[in-house]
User: Fold these one by one.
Assistant:
Number 1:
Amino acid sequence: MKKLIFFILIPGLLLPGCFRENENASTRLSLLPYPQELLFGEGEFSPGNKLTIKASGINEVSDPVIFIQLEESFNESFGASLETSVASEAGGPNIWLGLPESDEAFKLHCEQEIAWPAEDIGNEGYVLKIDNKGILLASHTKQGLFYGVQTLRQLLREFSNKSGIPSMMITDWSAIPHRAIMDDISRGQIPSNSYIKEQIRRYSELKINQMSFYIEHVVRTEKHPGFSPLDGALSIEEIRELSEYAKDYHIKLIGSFQSLGHFDKILSVPEYRYLGATDRMLDPLNPKAVEFLRDVYREMAPAFSSEWFTPNCDEAWDLSRAELSGEAGSLGVARIYADHIKRIDTTLIELDKRTLIWGDIIMEFPDILELLPPHVLIGAWNYDANESFAEFIDPLKDAGFEFTVSPGVLNSNRLFPDFNQAFVNIRNFISEGHEKGCIGVYCTIWDDGGPHFFNHDWYGVAYAADQCWKPGREARELFDQRFSTAFYGDTNNAVPKGILALNKLAELSATYEMNELIFDKYLIPETGKTISFNLSEWTEVGELAKEAGQILKNGNLN
């Protein structure tokens, strides 16, 4: 277990009256994600109207977001303003944050306060100490400091109506190094740049460090502008701008371009029909198709800041029955698929990217694992509410491949996500993936078939972020209270309760499992046919909708 180094070496200095463990910590503080270790102390820090802040190893020019966020949070929660500390001021600053190795004075201060960040908390870890003297935040990196600030901001919000912030010592680090959220913008809504920036800011507070978009055709390239829709697509320049914006929030953008199956939207454009083996799958044996992918990658890949790039290559159902070019019959599906990935991988390596592919075709044709380059990253995915995901994880692990796990918030053909399914899927998949050595979580938000808006998904996104940072089997009710307070300022837990009430609608046949196809159902029968309705079920639909509305109405929502 990771501990503060001085807590190990000098345990006598942490007396019961100073900092203590609290068995009910997760019910007391509304933090997302919840810290790895938290000790409570005696007393509190009362900010007052004016605070001094000192920074070591960072400044307002190189790291403006940290200072802006702290200024806003102290002002909103306590009406306090921040001023830069002057070295000669008696008593020292109220807030001192920074990188101990960059400043001997700060290093000495951390040692004296027994708040030295141990080496094994890694680049994303931090130590946050709050007592009646003030606040100390230390980390090995700017990213760790940023995450410590996010925790502090949540504490400020939680205690904004109190006299101060309770004394505590937080030692925190990430359990899983890569934590990504993917938004399906090819079948769902294409967000505006301003909304994507809002996603970036919210992700970063949840300590998500990568984001991606599922892209089939909604990207506009210079060499092949004809396949993207005229009324909605991301330009390469927009992607580059978003990548740059995300850097200040310690988030990297993962490139994505569907490169085998799910190619129907591009193939429906007459000038690109020659690329297809069928009307929905690219022909992997057609050299012109491969060169088309290379053209797209060469424009897209440099605009994305992550070292990963996913060509997807999932659900290529037509591989075994398509009219492929060349000697498809003699090669076999495993060889065709593996060779296609190798050609893609060669180009992505030239662009300094690591290939991430989905693992479903490999599950169907396991011989592929023997043919792939060992450095290819493979994503295990499934969205069911399973107790175990060994069938998706173990073949990749046993073959020696690094892998990610991909749970999801599934909106496919739905008016509202089924969070009962999603929460079991997210919790169990991430937990088992972590136990078996996954290097990342690539949580997916799918929007195929439904008129869906991303704002419906934050409940699931926050739960995935919580589990990525600290995997476990925590009771959902404990998360619900933390989510409702931290995300919406709602201490009545109204948002989760309202969502769960709405989820009950999916259990009724009258609502067709909350499927958007309900809008296509006939209300008046065709000539010679009849339609029957169960009025008691529709009465229940009305009662559940009313219940959810009343819960949300009574909530103290900000």
Number 2:
Amino acid sequence: MSGAASAVLSTTVAGAVVALLESLGVRRAYGLTGGPIAPFCDALGRSTRIRTLHCRHESGAAFAALEDSLASGELCAVFVTTGPGITNALTGICAARSDGGRVLLISASTSARETGRGAFQETSPVTLPVEGIFRAGPIFHSAFRLDEPAQLPAIAAEIALGLARPQGWVGHLTIPIGAQTELCAPAFARVVSCRHDCDPALIDASVARLDRREFAIWAGFGARGASAELAELAARTGAAVMCSPRAKGVFPEDHPQYLGVTGFGGHERVKEYLFEARPERILVLGSRLGEFTSFWDLDFVPSGGFVHVDLDPCAAGAAYPEAETLSVSAEIGSFLRALLGRLSPRVGSPAWTRHADAHPLELRARGPVRPAALMAAVQRAIVDASDAIVLCEAGNAFAWGTHALSFRTAGRYRTSTLWGAMGHASCGVIGATLARGTPGVALVGDGAMLMQTEISTAVQYGIPAVWIVLNDGLYGMIEQGMRAQGLRPLETKLPATDFAAHARALGAQGVRVEHEPELDAALAGIAAPARTRPIVVDVRIDPAEPAPFLRRVQSLVRQTSHADPSHSHMEVEA
């Protein structure tokens, strides 16, 4: 081999993949190493541009990468070994796909010559489904197996093309251990953003449906980058604004035209507005209107139907296929900018203005903490006193956080309404904290904390994440939900657990709260940027307080009983 050729092949496949990640802007990689992925991990550890975090579970690594990618807008990598390394990661990877993250899973696999011969933790089409793991499909937008160094340039180009999708991209690159050490020329890629301008004819059609008419705005997570345009649209038209649970803060929640959250943990005043004002149309911005956003409730269908704007052309009509819908495939900000110049200013007062809020909750001196009192303290100490991001775990924590917390800006509230995995927030908070550079706060139930956290990882790497545990000794949402359906709860009670002591045993700070007057002192300063140590605040929650999610129960009953969906009626949250 000539000297020039030797220089070109001066790295290995593992090193070339790491160089590709660097060229794609990856700054953090989360995962767990193992024998078959060791050559890649060795190359990753030598990178001066990518920080490697060795987590405690593969799904925790995937959740952390997902939340990092959403907070930073960057591609994050997850690295795992063969067999259970991949399958353990899939829960977090499915969450990344459903929530619009930018995550590349890099795994090891069994080489072709050992396939079917009983290799330890064999990872091949013999042991795992091709469609779910090795081929693009419902889990991965793209999936690659790198057997030969010559394949890498084409793979790099396809990854860069996928990352140009503004909706997010989730990929899988699996590399047999033998291929990881082969000599390889470096491959680089650069992501080129795509324009998603709106068809002028669709702008015309939208103006015809909205101008000088009474309409409401239903904002979703896809509108999080268009808060300024949304505020200008509301001011110009006087339209009332409601949002999906994931869109909290996209429109200021203290604004007089803000209705509230729809769906799980939502606000009854939304339905009150729909019955009283009866808007002719609803402008949907960046939401599929899935079950946890709409409960597929026909009361949300206005007489004139929807103007539904989303980057995904399949979003419109997914929740309400029978409703009249103008489908607009466009980026929300560009659509709103085009629309604003065409709509007439509203004459007179807005169609709806916010009612006076309820009086502050008075603290009770004794007994366990009411969830509403905890949320009020979180509002004071964290939401109002810092710019910390708040992540709510699946379960009652999600219901209470969505219902009770109020944000004025986008990007400070995160929850999952599609995949909804327990462990998402309790692990994802470390990724969100690293991406933002300030403490992130996870509101989680005791069931989730017993299932999975990355507290030990936070201790190891000095990540000042915060866990606030709603500790009621129950799988609370299951307990309350089964009782609401007239069923007897099955094994929903949990042994008493001292999460503060557990945190201290892992090397984190641990604080226990028994009564409501202790809340402010326990939460004071925990989201301060100067704090460098992870902390767990274990709050003894009153299990008798019903969470605001009972319309989810009614949705389940409607599905299991095959009730006629045309019999829609107004239902009030607990």
